[in-house]
Amino acid sequence: MKPFSDRRTTLLAQMHTQGGGVAILSTSPEMTRNADSCFPFRHDSYFYYLSGFTEPEAVMVLVAGKTNQSILFCREKNLEREIWDGFRYGPEAARYHFEFDATFPINQLEQELTNLISDQPILFHTQGHNSQLDTQLQRCIHTLRGRARSGVSTPNKTIDLHAILSEMRLIKDPGEIALMQRAASISALAHQRAMKITRPGMHEYELEAELLHEFRRQGAPSPAYNSIVAAGANACVLHYNANNAKISDGDLVLIDAGCEFGSYASDVTRTFPANGKFSTSQRVLYELVLAAQAAALEHAKIGARYQDGHDAAVRVLTQGMLDTGLLNKDKVGFPEDAIANSAYRQFYMHGTGHWIGLDVHDVGFYRDVSAVVSADTKEKPYRKLQAGMALTIEPGIYVRPAEGVPEQFWHIGIRIEDDILITENGPLNLSRETPKTVAEIEAIMK
Ligand code: GLY
Ligand code: MN
Ligand code: MN
């Protein structure tokens, strides 16, 4: 529990530098799937980051005052409910196990919260994130205002708690890195399993089942996002997840799938030939995407700006599009022109990555928000990479049939995605155990 209580201490110190006050955050609400069935519960990542507590119906309050206080509100013990749904800590055991200063039953939240925010200068809140909590808090403030004549005051300033926590979450500590490594390694095993078993004639969902099988048998509770298993033309649909088509001989199969382990995400994409051997056209584009990824990786280092990797990948891809005739040299001109006028976006229309951590698209600003913007710069520059940041690098190429596009490339969709940790010694590829070169892929599929 130490990393969680350490993070609360760090946050409390930051709250003091801003004048002190009360921070409030809740876990996610349970969501109905249909009738009386719920979606599998997944705790809120911010809430988990500070508590380690994974039960639904929980709220945390941190007080940065004369003495600091960490308080948890959670469900009470309930033998009847525990017979049906399983164990719950209850306030007493939760206080001990999760190292809070005080715990209360969740049904006492409004009553206690009213007292806790009384006379506090600043409310550190995640407004707009959880409507139930917003409403409860409004009622508390309303109640407090009613006591104004007795001399109590309500907080007169609100600070966005997520903005502070997002910056904390952006830099991963050794425990988080170990979990992310395990998540990526399990995903690597799942991709290997899918590659080994793929044969033309199978359906996409059969490969999805293999991925899930490997995730679960390795102890990962679920995928970190909906798995994409896209054969042939389906690979050109960026968020395809019907996963129900038959895989044909000659198809490429694009699998974008990663498990969540210990609440941390992995996000891995590989593209491989269903019959085990790349055709010439497939191979040409595959090597191009691979080269683009290698170019982006060179910028995954301390001090480089977040967007440098994307820009490097775009340069390689654009040159390749001109060399292969995907883009027409006579029409587009030089690579710089194809980049400037976004011609490359016909075949590469997404970014080259995102932060990854507790959420697959993890939190944290991408730009240097403290930068001063002048009339000619307008946009804030992208931020510089630091040790402990983790991001995906995922260039791709997607060829939809169109006039002037060489037919040999039609319907080819390729993405190659790895999870990268920025370290003092350069990039560490967490998903490195997933076969990636043409030789590695063709060997494992034999
Ligand atoms: N799998 C989601 C993504 O690659 O961003
Ligand atoms: Mn991704
Ligand atoms: Mn992905």
Describe this structure in words.
The longest helix has 24 residues, at 174-197. Helix 1 (2-17) packs across helix 2 (45-51), helix 5 (109-117) packs across helix 6 and helix 8 crosses helix 9 (204-217). The two termini are 46 Å apart. The protein is globular and about 80 Å long. A hairpin with a 2-residue loop joins strand 12 and strand 13 (264-265). By secondary structure, it is an alpha+beta fold. The chain has 14 helices and 19 strands. The protein has helices spanning 2-17, 45-51, 79-85, 90-98, 109-117, 131-145, 161-170, 174-197, 204-217, 280-297, 308-324, 329-332, 335-340, 438-445; strands at residues 21-26, 32-34, 37-38, 59-64, 68-74, 102-105, 122-125, 157-160, 222-223, 228-231, 252-256, 259-261, 264-265, 269-273, 390-393, 396-398, 413-415, 418-423, 426-429. The chain folds into two domains: 2-166, Creatine Amidinohydrolase, Chain A, domain 1 (3-Layer(aba) Sandwich), CATH 3.40.350; 171-445, Alpha-Beta Complex (Creatine Amidinohydrolase), CATH 3.90.230.10. Helix content is 37%, strand content 17%. It has a six-stranded mixed beta sheet, with helices on both faces. The structure holds glycine (GLY) and manganese (II) ion (MN) (2 copies). One manganese (II) ion is lined by residues 267, 354, 392, 394, 417. One manganese (II) ion (MN) binds at residues 267, 354, 392, 394, 417.
